[in-house]
Design a protein that fits this description.
The protein contains one helix and twelve strands, in the order H-E-E-E-E-E-E-E-E-E-E-E-E. By secondary structure, it is mainly beta. It has a single domain, classed as Jelly Rolls (Sandwich). The strands form three sheets. A six-stranded antiparallel β-sheet has the order 1-2-3-11-5-9. Strands 6, 7, 8 and 10 form a four-stranded antiparallel β-sheet that branches. Strands 4-12 form a two-stranded antiparallel ribbon. The radius of gyration is 14 Å and the shape is globular.
Length: 135
């Protein structure tokens, strides 16, 4: 078991920008199966989907909007987007496997999130497929 008393603010200062999704991400703790990450969202997270496992989120700072839509892995068709959900500091939620998702910042400061997922979710070659965002 890995234990970390990490300071998410310090970790975020050293976060690396992921060019595919347009956010800065830093790992707080984890192993090869699951990690806990902090991220800063200046504008939006690139819209994407994972088919192997879900993700949990907590909004630490800021306000935004969550877009979700189910994607069929086999025989994909049009994505049925749900009505966007407003999110703000203190909100927590889970995104299940097969759901396209995008967080959009609606405030003047960066939207800051902590999320948990398998490391494969951060890799376009393993289990992150970029898709066109909702309009």
């Amino acid at each position: 078991m890995e234990f970390s008393k990490s300071n998410w603010k310090r970790a975020l200062e050293q976060a690396v920008r992921d060019p595919k999704v347009g956010i800065r991400i830093a790992r707080l703790c984890g192993d090869e199966h699951f990690g806990l990450y902090v991220a800063s969202v200046p504008d939006r997270v690139g819209c994407h989907v994972h088919f192997h496992g879900g993700e949990t989120y907590e909004i630490l700072a800021g306000t935004g909007e969550l877009h979700l839509g189910f994607v069929r892995q086999e025989n994909p068709g049009p994505i049925e987007w749900r009505k966007p959900e407003p999110v703000e500091a203190g909100d927590a939620f889970m995104i299940g496997a097969g759901f396209a998702h995008q967080l959009r910042n609606k405030g003047t400061d960066d939207l800051v999130i902590i999320f948990g997922c398998p490391p494969s979710h951060l890799d376009n070659q393993l289990d992150r497929r970029m898709i066109d965002p909702p309009t």
